[in-house]
């Protein structure tokens, strides 16, 4: 295309040149101007044409212009504007028809030219853009070429380097190989030399040894001797037998016999072992075969239906084998034919089984892929929940372990070496156990005592209550009497009121019927309020879930009570029985904070511990 | 584990009798025999000079004391204290002395390995065996005591003689295809003899009792070869430890290699338990409540306590770089021991001296590795169960069993465990005794765990 373009381009330009040249020759260049004007604007052409023509041709120079035009047109190959002259002398006449024809032709030509020009213009534009594009492409490709050329050079360089390296390495390898060979040769030569030297040295050494032997042994060395108090009997009880020439041979034979016996025994033993192993393996094989047959027999129908020739034959083989299997005695034969049969049949069955399993695997995988997605989502949720739960559990367990560890550490604060103490821990534990047992029995006794005391207290309290009741009744009767007396004798009234107020400070004087109830309550509630607490405790005693806890606290209390008695707190010095009881209860309540305070903390914790451990004991 | 008081001892000579009833120990020139249960002195014998070697006869009736410097052997009877026997090797000198398995003959090796003299305690007869080879392990008896295999060297060739112990008659005599025989060892069943070449060549040969060559095994060439050999108690496996840091296990049917145990310096497999001994700082008092207070005083207090920690894989063990320009390089498998039930194999690689590897023979893989703080001196299996005791020359004895590891502090000041012995042939309840000794003229102590 480019070629074509380049070819047409100069043609066009030359043509235009030619035209311009031609017009320039005329030194008027009307056509060029005209054409330019036509190019510039085609619409106002008519006016311009008029004016232009008027400028070109005036009234005066019609002849000249006609002749000029004629000349021009004839040079372009148009027919002459003048009529054929009959004679040279005569003035040529303007042929109107020819002029018109020429004009028409010129116009047609002009239009054609314009069209062609337009076409050429558009083509030119198109080609210009094409040219640009191609130039761009060309530049790009050039760039690419450059880069790829550079790359290629780099690669070539690398290749060269690698080849160089490879050559070097090859050289090195060769060198190393040579070196190895050399070293091996050296080693070998050294070895032979060493062996040779060794042999020589050894020979010398042997000679010397021989010499020494002769020197040392031949000289009747008196010193070489054994002093024995008396000879001892042989371990087997036999007498030492003297060797003589005669018996030597028989001895030797006997020894040989024994040796072979030992060897034979060993071989027999090994054979037995191998036989046993074989038998076991055979058993396993047999079982495997049986299982295979039983496994494969339900499928027998399918392959037969398929009439697959290979499997069909194998199946039939199986059947045959199954028939053979019934003859158990065959297994004891260890001849090669049986072995072959066995291995062959097993192999066949194994092949079937393998293909079957593969098939199953494929199916399973298909099913798995199909039913994977929805299952997966569910399982993930479940999984997350489960993991959360498990994590929580782990946390709890960890905490528990931590607390246990802390307890253990407290217990074993001093003994840290677990390795050594682990050995000693048993005896410690035993010791401790015994000690704790003793303490436990002591506490039990104390507890019993306290129980007894408490019972007596409660009894006393009941007695007191009864007494009070009796007293109340007595008083009520007395009051009634008084009242009766008062109704009869008015003057005694004032005294009676005083008495009442003295007995029950804020109680209702006005209705004595209600009076009796608070009065009955009074003996329990009045003294210091603590008996209430006691009653509560006694009430809660049977209802409490673990009596041992109570015992524990009580025993703690007992211990503390003995201590605090020595301290003589004001609470304890109350003389009456009820008071003592109530203070006792108070201690039991107070004992908990007390034990946490740390004053007796060491002891109290020991007791607590002892109780905890005791609980496990029985 | 209980420990007795400390007894005096010289040059690490202390041995339990084969029946486990007595304990013989030497202090200079005196031989002290104690009851192994009560540790009361039963007998006291006086030798002519410092005792250099002690050995019980197989029936526990006699004790042999070798005085190498004087070329003397003195034998004492436990039943008859007044009975005595003195064997003088005279100018030939004495370098080794041992009992024959029947306990009535003594085999003395003269200096320069000129000959072996067999002295009988029953008769006046003396037998000589010429050309014994001076090597690592040249004499070996079968476990039933019937046969003796002896390495010999004649005319620059190695031979093995098999003798009948009852009358010292030669049964078989054959040459071995070795450059320089380093050792021979009977299989526990007494039917196969393993003979191996010196460390310059990897070669192990297996001979039948009748002298037939059963098999040869060579793992590689041109490198230092076998360093240690051990038969499994069941005679089923033969473990061969070599200078390349590997143990190869041969089977007893084809005598081919079953497996190869490498001893890498880093352990990556998370299945393997790596016990690391760690020194413990003095315990911190955690709580105010010291309960019970007397316990601290009762515990064994020592300056450094140690315990085992299970290290998380990958673990890299401390390795020594061997000096290439010195003889006897510290590389290769220096020690191996099968457990009595043949289920475990304990090994020590000399390039990783602080570690003991324990291999599971049933699964043929590494089961556990123990890394001590100091180099392992010796280890021994309990004869009754799968329990390994390790000594590092410190004041502790380390015990491993499939259940775990413990380090036991041996009481006593400045005490070093160099040895650890167990003996458990005694009838009645299981009893195994451990003895640990301090080097040089130092006290010894035994202990009996119940």
UniProtKB/TrEMBL annotation, chain A:
InterPro entries in the cross-refs: Adhesion_Centrosome_assoc, Afadin/alpha-actinin-bd
Superkingdom, taxonomy of origin: Eukaryota
GO CC terms: adherens junction; centriolar satellite; ciliary basal body
Keyword Cytoplasm included in the entry's annotation: yes
Coiled coil: 131-218, 380-407
Positions with biased composition (Polar residues): 537-570
Family annotation (Pfam families): ADIP (PF11559)
UniProt keywords, alphabetically: Cell adhesion, Cell junction, Coiled coil, Cytoplasm, Cytoskeleton
KW Cytoplasm (keyword) present: yes
Region (Disordered): 296-315, 503-618
Main location as per UniProt: other
BP terms from Gene Ontology: cell adhesion; intraciliary transport involved in cilium assembly
Subcellular location as annotated: Cell junction, Adherens junction; Cytoplasm, Cytoskeleton, Microtubule organizing center, Centrosome, Centriolar satellite
Family: Belongs to the ADIP family.
Protein name: Afadin- and alpha-actinin-binding protein isoform X1
UniProtKB/TrEMBL annotation, chain B:
Ranges in a coiled coil: none
GO CC aspect terms: microtubule organizing center; MWP complex
Tree of life domain: Eukaryota
InterPro entries linked: Centrosome-WD_assoc, WD40/YVTN_repeat-like_dom_sf, WD40_rpt
Signal peptide, first to last residue: none
UniProt-recorded name of the protein: WD repeat-containing protein WRAP73 isoform X2
Protein species of origin: Balaenoptera musculus
Taxonomic lineage from the root: Eukaryota, Metazoa, Chordata, Craniata, Vertebrata
């Amino acid at each position: 295309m480019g070629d074509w373009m380049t070819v047409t381009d100069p043609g066009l330009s030359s043509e235009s040149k030619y035209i311009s040249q031609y017009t320039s020759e005329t030194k008027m260049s009307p056509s060029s101007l005209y054409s330019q004007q036509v190019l510039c604007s085609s619409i106002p052409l008519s006016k311009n044409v008029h004016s232009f023509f008027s400028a070109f041709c005036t009234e005066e120079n019609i002849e000249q212009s006609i002749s000029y035009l004629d000349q021009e047109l004839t040079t372009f190959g148009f027919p002459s504007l003048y009529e054929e002259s009959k004679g040279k002398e005569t003035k040529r006449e303007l042929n109107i028809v020819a002029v018109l024809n020429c004009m028409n032709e010129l116009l047609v030509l002009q239009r054609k030219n314009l069209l062609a020009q337009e076409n050429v213009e558009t083509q030119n534009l198109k080609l210009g853009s094409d040219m640009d594009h191609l130039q761009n492409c060309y530049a790009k490709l050039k760039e690419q070429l450059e880069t790829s050329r550079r790359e290629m050079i780099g690669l070539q360089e690398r290749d060269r380097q690698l080849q160089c390296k490879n050559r070097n390495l090859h050289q090195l390898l060769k060198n190393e190989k040579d070196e190895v060979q050399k070293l091996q040769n050296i080693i070998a030569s050294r070895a032979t030399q060493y062996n040779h030297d060794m042999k020589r040295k050894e020979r010398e050494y042997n000679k010397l040894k021989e010499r020494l032997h002769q020197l040392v042994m031949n000289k009747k060395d008196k010193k070489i001797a054994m002093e024995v108090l008396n000879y001892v009997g042989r371990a087997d009880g036999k007498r030492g037998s003297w060797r003589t020439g005669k018996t030597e041979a028989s001895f030797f034979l006997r020894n040989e016999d024994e040796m072979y016996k030992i060897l034979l025994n060993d071989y027999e033993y090994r054979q037995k072992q191998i036989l046993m192993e074989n038998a076991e393996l055979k058993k396993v094989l047999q079982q495997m075969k049986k299982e295979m047959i039983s496994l494969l027999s339900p499928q027998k129908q399918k392959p037969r239906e398929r009439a697959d020739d290979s499997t069909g034959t194998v199946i039939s083989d199986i059947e045959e084998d199954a028939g053979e299997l019934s003859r158990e005695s065959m297994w004891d034969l260890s001849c090669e034919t049986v072995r072959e049969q066995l291995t062959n049949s097993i192999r066949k069955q194994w092949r079937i089984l393998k293909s079957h399993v593969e098939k199953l695997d494929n199916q399973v995988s298909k099913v798995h892929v199909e039913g994977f997605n929805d299952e997966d989502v569910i399982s993930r949720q479940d999984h997350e929940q489960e993991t959360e739960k498990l994590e929580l559990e782990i946390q709890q367990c960890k905490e528990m372990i931590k607390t246990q560890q802390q307890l253990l550490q407290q217990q074993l604060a001093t003994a840290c070496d677990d390795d050594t103490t682990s050995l000693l821990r048993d005896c410690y534990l035993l010791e401790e156990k015994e000690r704790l047992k003793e303490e436990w029995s002591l506490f039990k006794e104390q507890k019993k005592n306290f129980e007894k005391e408490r019972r007596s207290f409660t009894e006393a309290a009941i007695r007191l209550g009864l007494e009070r009741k009796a007293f109340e009744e007595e008083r009520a009767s007395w009051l009634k009497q008084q009242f009766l007396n008062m109704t009869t004798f008015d003057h005694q009234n004032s005294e009676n009121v005083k008495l009442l107020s003295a007995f029950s400070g804020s109680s209702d004087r006005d209705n004595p019927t209600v009076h009796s109830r608070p009065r009955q309550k009074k003996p329990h509630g009045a003294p210091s309020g603590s008996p209430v607490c006691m009653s509560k405790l006694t009430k809660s005693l049977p209802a409490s879930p673990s009596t041992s806890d109570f015992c524990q606290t009580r025993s703690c209390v007992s211990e503390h009570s003995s201590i605090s008695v020595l301290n003589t707190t004001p609470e304890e010095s109350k003389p009456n029985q009820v008071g003592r009881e109530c203070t006792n209860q108070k201690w039991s309540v107070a004992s908990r904070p007390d034990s946490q305070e740390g004053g007796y903390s060491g002891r109290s914790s020991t007791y607590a511990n002892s109780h905890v451990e005791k609980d496990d004991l029985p | 584990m209980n420990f007795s008081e400390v007894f005096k001892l010289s040059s690490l000579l202390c041995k339990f009798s084969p029946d486990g009833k007595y304990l013989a120990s030497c202090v200079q020139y005196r031989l002290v025999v104690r009851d192994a249960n009560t540790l009361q002195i039963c007998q006291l014998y006086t030798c002519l000079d410092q005792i250099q070697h002690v050995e019980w006869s197989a029936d526990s009736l006699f004790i042999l004391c070798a005085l190498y410097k004087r070329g003397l052997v003195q034998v004492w009877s436990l039943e008859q204290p007044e009975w005595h026997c003195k064997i003088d090797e005279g100018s030939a000198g004495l370098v080794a002395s041992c009992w024959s398995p029947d306990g009535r003959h003594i085999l003395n090796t003269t200096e320069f390995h000129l000959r072996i003299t067999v002295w009988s305690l029953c008769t006046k007869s003396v037998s000589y065996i010429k050309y014994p080879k001076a090597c690592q392990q040249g004499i070996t008896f079968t476990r039933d005591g019937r046969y003796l295999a002896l390495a010999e060297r004649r005319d620059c060739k190695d031979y093995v003689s098999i003798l009948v112990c009852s009358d010292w008659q030669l049964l078989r005599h054959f040459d071995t295809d070795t450059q320089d025989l380093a050792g021979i060892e009977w299989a526990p069943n007494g039917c196969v003899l393993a003979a191996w070449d010196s460390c310059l060549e990897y070669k192990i040969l297996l001979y039948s009792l009748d002298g037939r060559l059963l098999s040869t095994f060579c793992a590689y060439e041109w490198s230092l070869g076998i360093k240690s050999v051990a038969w499994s108690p069941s005679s089923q496996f033969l473990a061969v430890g070599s200078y390349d840091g590997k143990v190869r296990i041969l089977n007893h049917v084809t005598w081919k290699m079953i497996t190869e145990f490498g001893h890498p310096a880093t352990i990556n497999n998370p299945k393997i338990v790596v016990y690391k001994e760690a020194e413990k700082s003095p315990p911190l008092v955690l709580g105010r409540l010291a309960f019970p207070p007397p316990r601290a005083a009762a515990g064994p207090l020592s300056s450094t306590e140690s315990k085992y920690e299970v290290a998380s894989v990958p673990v890299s063990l401390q390795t020594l770089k061997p000096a290439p320009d010195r003889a006897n390089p510290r590389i290769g498998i220096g020690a191996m021991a099968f457990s009595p039930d043949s289920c475990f194999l304990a090994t020590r690689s000399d390039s990783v001296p602080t570690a003991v590897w324990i291999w599971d023979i049933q699964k043929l893989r590494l089961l556990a590795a123990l890394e001590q703080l100091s180099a392992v001196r010796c280890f021994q299996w309990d004869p009754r169960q799968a329990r390994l005791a390790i000594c590092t020359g410190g004041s502790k004895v380390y015990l491993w069993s499939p259940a775990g590891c413990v380090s036991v502090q041996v009481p006593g000041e400045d005490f070093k465990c160099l040895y650890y012995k167990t003996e458990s042939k005694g009838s009645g309840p299981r009893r195994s005794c451990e003895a640990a000794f301090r080097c040089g003229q130092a006290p010894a102590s035994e202990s009996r765990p119940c």
